[in-house]
Amino acid sequence: MSIKQTGKPARLGPFESLKRGLKLLARRGQRVSEARFRTAIERSPMGIHVFAPDGRPLLSNAAWSELWGLPGGEEADANVFRDEHVRASGLVPYVEEGMGGEAVTTPPLLYDPEAVGREGRKRWFEASIYPVKDDDGRVLEVVLLLEDITERREVQDELEKSEERLRSLVRNAPDIITVLDGDGTIRYQSPAVERILGYGADELLGKDIFDYVHPEDLGFVGATFSGGFDSPGAVSGRLEYRLRHKDGSWRHLEGSRPTCSTPPG
Length: 265
What we know:
The chain is built from seven helices and ten strands. It is α+β, with helices and mostly antiparallel strands. It has two domains: 27-154, PAS domain (Beta-Lactamase), CATH 3.30.450.20; 173-255, PAS domain (Beta-Lactamase, 2-Layer Sandwich), CATH 3.30.450.20. The N and C termini lie far apart (88 Å). The relative contact order is 0.07.
């Protein structure tokens, strides 16, 4: 079917009308998809920055600017390879690696605003870098995602400090502190054991504690140890017993047994 220009609008046959309708729907669907895509990016809690292979910025969201502590309305619109924030955080080498065409995930990185002459809180983040390639493998653009892990890192650091304080207390405690498995195997021995019983702290690791208990004390010591599994959260009363010194003599000791949570065997 041919269509001639007659000065009036050309009339389209059913097939041409259907094709035009489908194209209009496709364009409308594309606009809706793009709107959804942009909304998802803008509302994402992760910092998102899309840039061209030469580093030119193409798209970024509010979370990207917030992570760098930029004032409201100010955008990080510099070339990503020259961006002072990106450079100060040590992110550039990973971005360059991602330009090679493979996805890259960074270890935790620290950004200190003072490094670029700004005020604000130090931020820990992890980054994922995803190159977008054409069918020939050529990088068309790169998507850079930043996850702010500051709070998680601070909790982890505080936990590590608490654990170190506890380890320091145990190391310097004047009394022997022993950690046992459910079958009585020694898993930890504090340094005080050397001063009191003559063994190095690592010398008893993996040994059976009951091999060092006086034969006459084995009965009530074993019963007290096993009883701990029947009353979670409890601490035994003071217990007097004898343990073998490294020189073969017996030393009278007094101690207590915090409850274990795993039964023997």
